[in-house]
Queue: 2 jobs
Job 1
Amino acid sequence: MSLDELYTTAGDDAVVLNVHLQPGAGRTSVVGRHGSALKVRVAVPPEAGRANEACAALLTSSFAATSVELVGGAKSREKRFKLVGVDLDDFRRQLERAVEDGTGGPGPENRQTGRR
């Protein structure tokens, strides 16, 4: 699958990134790919927009964006974030690295069965 499915360009220095967000995770990290979205886990619960804010902060630092705005999916796991102030070539390289090097792992272990 192509990385082009994960985002659309929105001008010379902006992209809209599809994100699959998992709130309430053990730690905040970019996990990799989830269908046509970048999978992100955040440690905060989905209360009062806190998970969306944590995701925006992670995207800002991960992709060196000057601003990140939630533009779709405020109450859904499937979200769209607009990242402004990015160099498109750098963004694509960082996205490729994030998908390949996702550090989230397979998820927390089930304490009763010991399985993931």
Note: The beta strands are 7-9, 14-22, 29-34, 37-41, 67-72, 78-84.
Job 2
Amino acid sequence: MRGVVQSAGESPPQGERRGTTRVTIRSAPQRFVETWIDALAGFLFCVVLPIPIYATGEPFAGPFGGT
């Protein structure tokens, strides 16, 4: 609050305290895009990346016997 003088025993209003920062809320489209980017990165890391790592192992290297 600018231009308001506070007495010595008075605490500043909520959100105006010294040393605290205000939280700004991002716009809805920005949050939507960030959510999809996080989901895509998680899918790539958890689903796509393990395929070449594990698919070169023993069960997939040879023929599938009785299947």
Note: The first helix runs from residue 28 to 48.
